[in-house]
Amino acid sequence: MECSWEGFGLENFSRILGKHEQAKKIFDDRGKFTLEVVKIMAENEAQMVLLWDDYGFKNGLFMRPKLYRKYIFPWIKRICQAAHRQDCKIMLHSDGDLLEIFEDIIECGVDAINPVESTTANPDYDIFKLNEKYGEKLTFVGNLSPILLALGELSEIESSAKRLIRELAPGGGYIFGSGHSINPAITPERFELMYSLKEKYGKYPIGHIPN
Length: 211
Known about the structure:
Elements: H1 2-6, H2 10-16, H3 20-43, E1 48-52, E2 56-57, E3 60-61, H4 65-85, E4 89-93, H5 102-108, E5 112-114, H6 127-134, E6 139-141, H7 146-151, H8 154-168, E7 174-175, H9 188-201
Parallel strand pairs: 1-4, 4-5, 5-6, 6-7
Antiparallel strand pairs: 2-3
Helix pairs in contact: 3-4, 4-5, 8-9
């Protein structure tokens, strides 16, 4: 998705989406290329491949769900199947509110999703709610707010990080990390705090984590 529209810009790409044959050709070209790259990596003993492919922004998706189902998810499914044949996992990175297509992503065979942004406008796109519903089917990666990391009190960062590990990590299915990136506004002190919390509380078996 992301590399397809970036070549045209969103405005032009929105016009292209009204022309089925043209849109299909663009997505199929990207899909074929990505599939072959993943096959090569998996055949050469890659244990996980990260697909970097933003599908949305903080207020929703870039396209209607039916367009993802028509053009993108058939390729994601084939990519996952090719990786799994070689015992390789697929992690999907996508920013934004993905709630409308979250089950589609799981049905494609994606193994892990990053970063499950905590700063979307949708209160239901919440990692704790999603984990309750889909935790047996998907590994969650990230979610520690980059805004909190940059601007919050150190005590707030610690509290949020400990909750993520305490509620999501026991039993597996969670990888601790930022809910987007480590941006330039995050000082070394704040990054070191985040890392130290992972080292202190994020090793298995997960023990008691105080509030």
